[in-house]
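Hi C.,

You asked whether I'd gotten around to modeling the 206-residue construct. I have! Everything is below, sequence then structure, no commentary in between.
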Amino acid sequence: MKLLIVSGSQRTDSQSAKVATYLAKHSPEFEEVSHIELCRYDLPFWDGEQESKNAVSSPWTMIGHKVKRADALILITPEWGGMASPLLKNFLLMCDNQDTAHKPALLVSVVSGISGAYPIAELRMNALKNNKLVALPDHLIIRNVTEVLNHSHEDVLAEDQREKDLRQRIDYCLYMLHQYSQALTTIRHRHKHEPYPKQQEYCYGM
């Protein structure tokens, strides 16, 4: 099973990237883990035309290849003004649903304070309709992110129960993501080899 982690902050050396690095290191069930930090690529804003994302100067060919190979995705967004990042939403608009349909996605919101729920609600409501990614019932909100996931497991203080609880929640979510990735492989195989009649008439969600 191959895992792709996409961090959607528009800043380099971001807390979103820090969280992505932590998740990558703690996903032993997956045979291969890749991380794309969107701010490091000059992706065009999606204008609805295939030509714009497949232009010679666009890095989408490489990114799209990683999306296609992945069996599961983790989508990480900071909360800015109660919203998911424009970079992540642009990425999702550019994804080809032939490459994303019926793949599980773990949604992760990163926030410096105690909020963080709004980006998750936004992504569940309107970011997955046409690409047909399957969001896990569980999600992660990493609150007070500058204060957590900064040390190895061994260095977490015994009295820091909040961080221990967070790390255990993360382990559970990564375990379930792997379970979904295995289960949905069967769906994708049947979707490809035993298609519903006129399946392409229903390539977009309602």
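If it helps when you're writing up: The chain has a mean pLDDT of 93.

Thanks,
B.
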